Amino acid sequence: MSSTSGNSLLALVTGALIGAGVGILFAPDKGSKTREKIKDGFQEAKDDLKQKLDEVSEQLKNKLSSSKDTLEDSFEDLISNVSYKTEDVISFLEQKLAELKEQNAKLQK
Q: Which parts of the chain are coiled coil (predicted)?
């Protein structure tokens, strides 16, 4: 390692230690209280995140459930429409068959 890199690293570590020391000296609370506040802050953040995740999960479940119901209704409507269309096609084909039978009867005479 070069002398310049070593000096830069030493300066960086020294600055970090001085900053930590000054932070501790000017901290408004004792270390134990500060650690407790940090712990409480993390716990609150964790609880908030869990609550938001639960809310989003519930919303997603509701949307999926409603989408499923909508899809089932749409499928039933489609089946019903296809059934009606099938009846229309069968009626049309029966009518054409009757017409062809008439034409065939005329040709047979």
A: 39-103
